[in-house]
Amino acid sequence: MLGLEQLSPEDRKVVGRARRLERFLTQPFFTTEQFTGLKGKLVSLKDSLDGCETYSSGRIQGLPGKRALHDRGDQ
Questions:
Q1: By the 8 A CB rule, do 60 and 20 touch?
Q2: Gap between the Cα atoms of 20 and 64, Å rounded
Q3: pTM to 2 decimals?
Q4: Complete DSSP assignment for 21-36
Q5: Which residues contact 50 (CB under 8 A, 6 or more apart)?
Q6: C-beta neighbour count of 51 within 10 angstroms
Q7: 10-63 tens-digit pLDDT
Q8: Beta carbons within 8 Å of 69's beta carbon, 6+ residues apart
Q9: End-to-end C-alpha distance for the chain, whole angstroms
Q10: How confident is the model at residue 1 (pLDDT cuts 50, 70, 90)?
Q11: Dist. CA 48–CA 31, nearest whole Å
Q12: What does the alpha-carbon distance between residue 46 and residue 72 come to, in Å, rounded to a whole number?
């Protein structure tokens, strides 16, 4: 397995997008409250799909911090 520093700049961007999308998709859900202890958040299907598109397209590439859009629910 290659380290991140061994990847091309374009591949690093893809890895970054994939990691942000993974974090986005693992936000607190009502069905996992009993396992995680985190209160679930309600997000509409449209907002969820729009969020996935935003993460995978790289439109949020320049936002500061890993948690800029994480754990927000439908805010």
A1: yes
A2: 12
A3: 0.59
A4: HHHHHTS--GGGHHHH
A5: none
A6: 18
A7: 998 888 888 888 877 777 778 888 888 888 888 888 988 888 888 778 776 665
A8: 24, 51, 60, 63
A9: 38
A10: low
A11: 16
A12: 15
pLDDT higher than threshold 80 for residue 75:
no
DSSP 34-65: HHH-PPP----HHHHHHHHHHHHHTTTTT-SS
Q: Report the distance separating Cα 11 and Cα 61, nearest Å.
A: 14
Which pLDDT score is estimated for 8?
92
Length of the chain: 75
- Up-side HSE of residue 54: CA atoms within 13 Å toward CB? 13
Task: Tell me the C-alpha distance between 4 and 49, whole Å.
Answer: 28
Q: How far apart are CA 45 and CA 66, in angstroms?
A: 23
At residue 63, the pLDDT reads 57
